[in-house]
Amino acid sequence: MHPWIADRTASFDSSGIRRVFDLAAKMKDPINLSIGQPDFDVPDEIKEATIEAIRAGKNAYSPTQGIAPLREAILADVRSKYPGQDRDVFISSGTSGGLMLSMLSMVNPGDEVIFTDPYFVMYPALVRLCGGVPVMVDTYPDFRLDPAKIEAAITPRTKMILINSPGNPTGVVASEEDQRAVAQIAADKKIALLSDEIYSRFFYDGTFYSPAADNPDTIVIDGFSKSHAMTGWRVGYVHGPPAIIATMLKIQQYSFVCSPQPAQWGALRAMDVSLQANFDDYRRKRDYLVNELSPHYELTSPGGAFYLFPKAPGQAGGEAFVERAISQGLLIIPGKIFSQRDSHFRISFAASDAMLQRGVEKLIQLAKS
After folding, report:
1. Which residue windows are transmembrane per the record (predicted)?
2. How crowded is residue 187: how many other Cβ atoms within 10 Å of its Cβ?
3. Given 1.10.3720.10, 3.10.105.10, 3.40.50.300, 3.90.1150.10, which CATH number is that of 7-42+275-368?
4. CB 220 within 8 A of CB 197
5. CATH no., domain 61-270
6. What are phi and psi of 199, to 5 degrees?
7. What's the CA gap between 55 and 86, in Å, rounded?
8. Which residues neighbour 238 within 8 Å (Cβ) at sequence distance 6 or greater?
9. Measuring CA to CA, which residue among 70, 149, 76 is closest to residue 116?
10. Whole-model pTM above 0.70?
């Protein structure tokens, strides 16, 4: 390692997902089921609101906490969902920015952060960046959030429990009963509870539940990246106890500064744009993949997000299977990027019907070969 590079950077690797993206850019007409972003475009009315803001000269820094109309609209929504709770909100530079600020605000060196395995790739890296210790709770084979396992993982050094439902990479939704139990455990033991709800609108069965409903100290991260296909616009938001939000804002002042102002005006317009038809379409895509692949792969049907996390066939493991798939033009993500196990792989069904059909045909062929 170069002598100028900080030691903390050696505690985690670059995201393996980016390597697959780089590979995809070099391939001609791949079957690309790797990308974790919607395949529909940003609605025109959101684009127009953003263009209008740019033309109106709203191109400078916004307040660190975000433009007042967007904050007020989100806060009104939060207060309607959680009446009586003392919650504040700020606009982050994407949900990734919100995650980083959450960790920097609450995790001290040596503190332990509990989350389930499989996990979103950023979780262990961000914990280690703060000097914290990731504590991964195995959820194979059904990827259920098990309150008993979470409680068993708690030690005197536990600072935070991190929940992601619907989850990436599995798409599995934690039950209301299990989330409520974890919320109570966190409250009883005075442990921070962080709920990553970026896929909250991609919810296909039943009604969405947030642990903030039962634990008013829950810090919630959400945003517009996935729900409105605004992944490149970097507009997320965080709500939670005012003291925590104030601390996150203090760090944002010296790091991200603010979310891009024109994109915030677009996000304000997005709050009035329903994309339910798109979410219903993703439910149909989910059903298609599960019906076609279940006879050939061991898998859990996802209740949300837009991912499927099947077990690789045979004994070679997930990474070897993905390498074989990529050699035949199918881009998927090895499960070991999201897990301490190398047994599964991730499919994104945020793709056209034609692309999904090609992917299904190739996956069935690979399962039989």
Report:
1. none
2. 16
3. 3.90.1150.10
4. yes
5. 3.40.640.10
6. -100, 20
7. 37
8. 89, 90, 92, 98, 101, 102, 219, 220, 221, 222, 245, 248
9. 149
10. yes
